[in-house]
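Anyone able to model this chain together with 3,4-dihydroxyphenylalanine?
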Amino acid sequence: MSDIDDLQTHLLTAIDAAAGLDALETCRVHALGKQGVVTQRLKTLGAMTPGQRQAEGPRIHALREAVAGALAARKAVLETAALDARLAGERVDMTLPVDLAATGSIHPVSQVMDELAEIFADLGFAVATGPEIEDDWHNFTALNIPETHPARAMHDTFYVERTDGQGERHVLRTHTSPVQIRAMLAQKPPLRIIAPGRVYRSDWDATHTPMFHQIEGLVVDRGITLGHLKWTLETFLKAFFERDDIVLRLRPSFFPFTEPSAEVDVGWTMRNGKRALGGSEGWMELLGSGMVHPRVLANAGVDPTEWQGFAFGVGVDRLAMLKYGMDDLRPFFEADGRWLRHYGFSALDVPTLSAGVSP
Ligand code: DAH
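re: yes, here you go
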C-alpha cells in the first residue's frame, strides 16, 4: 500500500470519527488548509518531472476528492444531528403542569356565575341573555311597571339620551327581569331559564355600586305553584352554599311583576362568634321572587289561563360576599391586584357538580 493510500485511510478515519462540527473543521484544516497535508502533496506536483506528474497527479487529486467528499458527507450528518438535538431541546412538554405563579385569577363574580350556571343546568335551566342598554318597555312597562309607578323612581335609573330625538327612551337595565320578557317572546312555554348579567343603578356606598350583577330565574309551565318556587330555591341554595341545613323563609312582599310576591330570607346561626348561614337563629334577606303576574305573561304573549310561572332575582355580588366572606362590595370593582389575589380563583378550578361547585 502506498503512502498516499495510508494517508487517505488515516484522514478518512479521522473525519468519520469527528464528534462535532468543530472537530470536523480541525480535520479540514489539517487536510485541506493552506498548510494541510493534502495541500502540501498538491504543491509537490510543480517540482515533478512530466512523467512523475502523470503518474502521481491523478492519485493526489483523487486523494483530495476523497477527503473533500468525506468532509461534506460527515458535515451533513453532524448538521442533521445538531438540528435534531435543538428541536428536541426546544420541544414543549404539554403534559407538564401549568405554572400559574405569574398569571391572573378568576374574579369572584365570574366564579359565582359559573357556579350558578352549573347548579341550574343540573335542574334543567338554560342560560338566557338580554341587552344592557334596554328599552323602556322591556325594562318597565312589560313588567307591569307603568310610567307613573313609584318603582321607577325606586330603581334610580340611568337614562340613555337619544341623539336623534325620536323613538323610544332607553335605559341602562336596572334589573335582569327584562330578560324574562325577552325569553317568553323568543320561546314558547314550557321554559326554564336563568339570566345572569350586569345591571345599573345610580347608587354608591358600601353595599351599593352603580353597576352590579343579578341572576334572574324564570319557569313557565302548566300547574306551577309557589311550592315549585320554594323547592327550587332551597335546592339551589343548598347546592350553592354546600350545606344541607339551609332554611328559607318566604315573607309576603310586593313586586309589580309578581303576584303573590315573596321576599326570601335565609336563616343563620352564630358559629365562632360570627353569623354563618344554616339553621334559623336569625334571618337575613336574600332575594325577591313570586308567581309571574298574569299581566306580565300576557304582555309577553303567553296565555295566563293556560300557563303559570314563578320568577326570582338575586344579587350575584351579594351571593359571592356571603359565600366567600367579603364585607364590602366596592373592592369588587376597584381592580386592586391584592384583593384579586386574595379573593380570586384559579383558572383551572372549574366548578362542576361532580367535583364540587366551589374550589
Ligand atoms: N327585579 C327585582 C329587583 O331588581 C328582583 C326580583 C324580584 C326579580 C322578584 C324577580 C322577582 O324575578 O320575581 O329588585
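The first strand starts at residue 126 and ends at 127.
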